[in-house]
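so the lab meeting is tmrw and i was supposed to have these ready like two days ago... anyway. pasting both below. for each one the top line is the aa sequence and the line under it is the structure tokens. i havent really looked at them closely yet so no promises
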Amino acid sequence: MFFIVLAIIATAVLALDFVSKYLSVTLEFNFVVIPNVLKFIQTYNTGAAFGMLGDKAWAKYLFIVFTILACLFIIAYFVFNIVKKRRISKWLGVALTLIFSGAIGNLYDRIFLGKVRDFILFFYNTRIFPYIFNVADSALVIGVIMVIVYLLFLEKDAVFKRKDKQDGN
């Protein structure tokens, strides 16, 4: 049942990403949602986060290979745990599903368009660093934050695991 829920999450993220990107291009998004805070405006990113390496022709292939490897790693993690009949943390399962679906959403753009469609612009016209992204980027960031929280606080051997008091100590 848990894997059905993860499949639904992945499908929902991918559908929302594809539909929103399609609409951003066909409707040529360029409108303010919240003045100085949130604007929808169609743009393309040939690089990674913040356009890093966007001017390097070879970077597109590096991003594609890295994304495929990351997705294969996530699939292998799930398959390994299923075969070994190990319980997968729900938190970690959702986190990896968000990372996977976000990566697939942007991978599609990179392979078929050669660039990623972005349209959500935060903090425009402010002194705060503006950032433009899409639904897939949001899923990736939320998933990575969830993995960090899991490793730091929730995992069996977490770095900041709360120690239970034992026998009067």
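ok protien two:
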Amino acid sequence: METRKTIDTRAFGLMVILCMIWAIQQIAIKAAAADIAPIMQIGLRSGIGALLVWALMRWRSEPLNLQDGTWRPGLLVGVLFALEFLFVGEGLRYTNASHMAVFLYTAPFFAAIGLHLKLPEERLRIAQWLGIAVAFSGIVIAFFGPAEPPNTTESPNILLGDFFALLAGAFWGATTVVIRCSSLSSTSPTKTLLYQLLGAFVILVAVALISGQTQFRPTTLAIGSLAFQALIVAFASFLAWFWLLRTYLASRLGVFSFMTPMFGIVFGVWLLNEPLDPSFVIGAVLVVAGIVLVSGDAWLRQWFDTPGRGKTRQDS
């Protein structure tokens, strides 16, 4: 029987690197937006990433069998993945990269609620419901905290961008639910990733063409951003994440996702000189606290559980 390990130094170090990469992807897309539209960036990176995943499957002699019952849920996760990044790309046209990093990572809450409704073994505990409530209060504060509308010359209509980021998180959460509740839960990670990348490539490039977001000035920044997203984000980091999921306990890994929005805020301020509103900082802290409560429930119970429950069993 396959067993998964608890977190060790290697897993922790890799998770830190992955969270930094996932935070920087928002920065890279935003920084290169003047040279290549965000939607086109994400569409092209998904196509390149899909080619790399397909090449890896061929090298491993891994069959791409569509008769195994995965093509229907595969089509669905491809659409959901595309919608997630459609709202990421559109959101980055209006909001800051640091805001995107925080609101996108509300995905664990949407996934937790969906899995609670679909799978008996994924029922939420009281502490997890508390985490969702804490995160929701953080979202409200981050959205509506400023006394004046947060629209600026640099980031017009920032609330719309934040809302798009929240929608992106919801579609990411829905993707997780479909994977967990369908035949994709037992298929190979590379095949699941290929479905997602192909869906994003086809849909996002089509949206870019229809909406006229096809500008591409081959500057160093644009090419560097595209290469980073295709090779590092869409290919290497996603495959590393799937390897971690197959090697270590998922509940232990999930709690480390809180690092991504924190890195996103730091990199946004440092690299893009994005302003920090106090209400957004407070809201972001609450969202991160909610992530820890929802994703790290099993870990936290191990830390804080007392042997009282065991004594009660013995006494009874």
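from a quick look at the 2nd one: The chain has one domain: 25-306. The chain has 14 helices and no strands. will dig more after coffe
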